[in-house]
Amino acid sequence: LIFKRTASNRMGISYSTEPKLTKAQSDIKYLGSRYPFGDDELWKLYRAYHSIQNNKEKVSFITDWAVTCVVVPRSNVTEEESRVKLEEMRKDRFMLMQLIEHKILPPDFSQRLQERNFSSEDDVFSPQCEATDDGLLQLEAFFK
Question: Residue 2: what are its φ and ψ, rounded to 5°?
């Protein structure tokens, strides 16, 4: 027995209309149709992308990326304890990445990594990249 998902049904339950998606859900759905990432990976990249875009104090591409991707393991702690732990982990990651960048990696490694692997005319990290109405062009450039 094969269930086929369509816009009008989900796992055998009929819907008269497609459920309304949030902007983020719509973006993830769009990216999922274009790139070979799972939903969890797309959500992590999506959150990192928006966090880096909103970060006004950029240090370097690789440090900003590493700090943004810090995740607190799930446990039975309060939201406040989790927030404090996240800040602590981000500070530790920042210090570690600064040490790695200054003592181990070649000079300008982070900049070269960004330019060679993440830059294009639509580069979301580039100052000349202008925002679009729905942001999908910038978001898609980030995933390329």
Answer: -120, 125
Residue 12's φ and ψ, nearest 5 degrees, are 90, -5
Task: State the CB neighbour count (10 A cutoff) for residue 119.
Answer: 18
**Tens digit of pLDDT for each residue in 31-56?**
888 888 888 888 887 887 777 777 77
Distance CA 31, CA 25 (A): 10
The DSSP string of 17-77 is SPPPPPHHHHHHHHHHHHSS--HHHHHHHHHHHHHHHH-SS---HHHHHHHHT--PPP-S-
Chain-centre distance for alpha carbon 46: 3
Q: Report the distance separating Cα 93 and Cα 35, nearest Å.
A: 29
pTM of the model: 0.56
Distance CA 73, CA 86 (A): 9
Cα within 13 Å of Cα(94), Cβ side: 11
